[in-house]
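Next comes this protein:
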Amino acid sequence: VVPADDVTAAAGTDEELLGEVVRTDGSKQLTVDGWPMYRYAKDTAPGQTNGQGVGGTWFASAPDGKKAAANADSP
């Protein structure tokens, strides 16, 4: 889960797409274009996308909130 507290839009991201949902435990979760954001546990450094495509379910988010396109350099 990516917390929504003190979030600023990254370069290329429309700030109007950023939002939050309040979870059942009262914590706030970041959303981009309405989609809740999660951090893949095995990503340990900024910019890592090891969770991309895991299980055919999890995908990195592009700045517009859509699924990020596969990198041409990726296997």
